[in-house]
Amino acid sequence: MKKNMRWKRAFLIVLMSVALLNITTLISVNVDKVTVHAAAATKLNTPSITVLSRTPSTVNFTISKVTGASGYRVYRAASKAEAFVYIGKTTSLKYKDTKVSTSRTYYYKVRAYKTINGKTITSKYSAIKAAGKSMSKTTSITAKNSGSVNTITWSKVSNASLYNVYRSTSKTGGYRFIGASKTTAYKDSKISANTTYYYRMRGYRKSAGVKYYGLYSNVVSVTTGSTSSSPVSGNTSDNEAESYAKEVLDLVNKERTSRGLSELTTTTSLRDAANKRAVEIEQSFSHTRPNGTSPFTALEEYGVSYQAAGENIAYGQRTPAEVVEAWMNSEGHRKNILSESFGKMGVGYYKKNNTIYWVQLFTN
Predict the structure, then answer these.
(1) How big is the CA angle at 349 (ends 348 and 353), to the nearest 5 degrees?
(2) Which domains does the chain have, with CATH numbers?
(3) Each residue of 70-103: pLDDT tens digit?
(4) pLDDT of res. 238
(5) d(CA 25, CA 343)
(6) CA nearest 138: which of 161, 159, 155?
(7) What is the pTM of this model?
């Protein structure tokens, strides 16, 4: 009897041990799973940065979005060999460094961060990106009026591929970009009589995707005489230009409405930009302006905002009907005329030595 009791007691102990072992095993497995999931939730991907522009006083760059990040810490060094120093953080995907010197190259890296239960988690550092030295100040600027044109000249700036020109009718402000030049001179023909204009410019180049801007020049002024005129000159009369431009618009709208498309409208600024381009294609028959820039910079000069734009050019046709027919017989030109992306059109007309130069500028 006692032997049987001892056997039963031993068997019970074994069962309890097995049960405890199973419980321990289950608990260990569950804890392990919780630990694995928690570790996965704390990991942040590595961001990247793209330097957009470098001015004498700023470096601007964007940061790629990292899912789950609360923000991004920014680090900078004056060389790749130097230690990087923390300079700030941002919750935005854009960052502007305003504590820079014109004559230095800067290197940047960032990392994402977030806080979990009072603990800060960070990603790996991004790849290092550089922003080179800014360009020096444009000097020796002069301005001279010759009837219908103001000519601005300046000295060459090292490493500049273009020079951006800005104009105002007030010395103290309101400067607007009016164009760019690959040389050290710019001719401004969109001027009015008996008006004082103020100009300044700065060097520009684009390298490895980064836009570099130099220091602004000093301001120079010039006053036009009573003979200054608008871009529509040569052998062109204002009445003729206005009449022909209206007829081109009417013919274009006839083509559009016959195909169920909406009519195009126009504005004074859009017509002025088109007239400027008509003068320019007499100098260089191309969709690249004489100063080397896109034709759509003419829209910017006249304050025309747009998300979509197109241009048709032609010369030699004697009437609006002839030029519209020529454009409609050309696939690329017809595509612009019938595009649903456009809602406005300016018509440029310029006549010189009995040859007419035509321009259509389209915007949304």
Answers:
(1) 150
(2) 49-131 (2.60.40.10), 136-224 (2.60.40.10), 236-363 (3.40.33.10)
(3) 999 999 998 878 899 999 999 999 999 999 988 8
(4) 57
(5) 73
(6) 155
(7) 0.52
